[in-house]
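Thread: "does anyone have the structure for this chain?"

Original post by V.I.:
We have the sequence but no experimental structure in hand. Need at least a predicted one for the grant figures.
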Amino acid sequence: MIAKKFNSDDIIDFKDLLGIFNEVFENNTVLPQDEYLKNLLDNPNFVVIAAEDNKVILGGLTVYILQSYYNEKPVAYIYDVGVKRIYQGKGIGNSLIQFLMAYCKTNGFHEAYVESETDDVEAVKFYRKTNFSTEMQATHFTYKFS
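Reply from O.Q.:
Generated one for you, tokens below.
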């Protein structure tokens, strides 16, 4: 399994990942047009990281890069993390988080964070297994880089 950051050439893989998100989050969302998705992948404030094995997308995560007025370094807001059900529990989600943490450290981010609904027990359990810096009462996970 390898993790990789998508670019606009990865539109087909991005659509596969969005299909995984629909399955995992039990959505029936109709995907936007390819041109929109390509523009999203070209956006420097949006990052997609996926895990793949033999060119098959196993899961991934999406991140919005936010500028802060508290710090000159950007903040990474993890929006979605999803792994195909048949591959869950095999460390893929954790590998994706670790890949993102390395990316953020290399690129000078202040922190990354993700929010999870408290009643989403599986998500909270997953994030508690990652190497987060703080957990707030709102079930808000923060990853510090400086």
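V.I.: this helps a lot. The beta strands are 2-5, 46-53, 56-66, 75-83, 111-115, 134-136, 140-144.
O.Q.: and The two ends are 29 Å apart (CA to CA).
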